[in-house]
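The data are set out underneath:

___
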Amino acid sequence: MPPERIALNDVTDQTRNFTTTAMLVRKHPPKKSRSGANNLQQLVFENRERFQMKGVLFDRDIDLFRETLVEGKEYDITNPIIARIPEMFKRTEQVYQMTINAATQISETQSALPSYLIPLTKVGDYIGKNERIDIIGIAVHMHDKAIVRAKSSGIPYEVRKVEMLDTE
């Protein structure tokens, strides 16, 4: 039986065999768990109704999804593990979080959502649409990606230096 399509805000720890659609709005750098036994990476997903849900990757799954999950892109996420957020880790009113592992199917949607970084020559394409456009900076040079290792966990992650036009 194919998975049922369910909105992110309707997913609970009782939901099984489902697909939800959400944009990855925040991908924190990997770090060691409080116990120091595991590596973890925290994520934040948001659907088009602006409902957010935390996500988490552990150990080998961090490397498995390193290139797949990119901030600002929308994904169909099939069968992640949904669990209640323990009270000691709750910092928001969110009740559930998803754990993404090797059994989770993730595919990028073909949505027409604009990127947060667009060429200045393309800004005109967005004027007159329903979205509100704020230009908060102009990148004058984007350096190549570099690999940086976290001091605490030793886990590598990619960074890119962006030089911005000084507007003051």
